[in-house]
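Archive maintenance. Older records in this collection stored only the sequence; we are now back-filling the structure field for every entry so that each record is complete. The fields below show one back-filled record exactly as it appears after the update. Entries are processed alphabetically, and 28S ribosomal protein S9, mitochondrial is next in the queue.

ARCHIVE ENTRY
Title: 28S ribosomal protein S9, mitochondrial
Organism field: Dinoponera quadriceps
Length field: 327
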Amino acid sequence: MAVSIFIRPFRRFIGINSNITVLFLDTTPHLNTKSRAHSTSLSENNDLFEPEEKKKTAKKISKAMMAYMQRSKEHDEFMKKEIIEYQIGKRHLANMMGEDPEFFTQEDVNRSIEYLFPSGLFDSKARPMMRHPDEIFSNRKAAEFDETGRPFHSMFYTYKPNYYETLYVSPDNYTKNIVGTIQSLNNIEDSLIKQGTVPMDKMDLISSVWLTKMDIEKLLSETLKAGEYYYLITSLERLCNHPLSKRAQDFIMKYRKKLVSHISEIVIPSLEHDNTGRPYITVKNCMRKSTRGEVTIWGNGSGKITINGQDITYFEDMHYREQLSAK
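Back-filled structure field:
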């Protein structure tokens, strides 16, 4: 009994040969003497010890992967449910509007929502809307490592691989980044200079602005600090200042937003004159919520403001007086 306790610790040393028989005697005084034979082999010893280490390693990886896959599965199930509800709602909306659900586009959805739920709210985000779940809910990163824990991306350990991949050249991405694009433009510039041509093909940025920090974070699916955001914008501005930056317009416009021009929609009234030749302009049907007004601006005037027969004190709030005086 006492000797059998030492069997397990010494099995590795016992099983050196392929097959060794060891005799253990029970030397307990009050019991009869018995002999017990045990045989061990090298393959059996490896099976006893190595699988335990493998199980520990696999257990650690499986816990991490289990949690990751569980979150990914829950998100996928949530998005599937939302997409199904969106498709059902779009079909109901098409039937309400008397349209064919199979050819009911997102523009038709927006027009129908605006017709059925009119709103005077200024901010478009506060108005009723019905959009695809992919446009409403933020994007999530795909799997970043395999089942063994090995990351797919070469910049995984920077904790922000998409951000640094946009800035610098990586083995996964040689050209679609700022540094790689500048290097390619420099090579083209050098070749043009050798041919005796002065390169000048700069991009025009007047009709667009840089995306906000929140928009950049949605695009990269990563959270950025203020300093990281400004460093990215500064690097992009350096690319825009390149003489051949227009050749990288598609890459640059991924991080810019076009401004909507309303110049073509504004109709400037023509200048009129009274009997004395004094110029003036009258703008009719000026809308402010449910109020309609008419404004006349006279040339060579005295600066006096008249509102329904009263002066500027017609507005009791100083905020409105300041706005009117600033016009």
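Update note: The two ends are 104 Å apart (CA to CA). DSSP finds ten helices and seven strands in the chain.
Entry marked complete.
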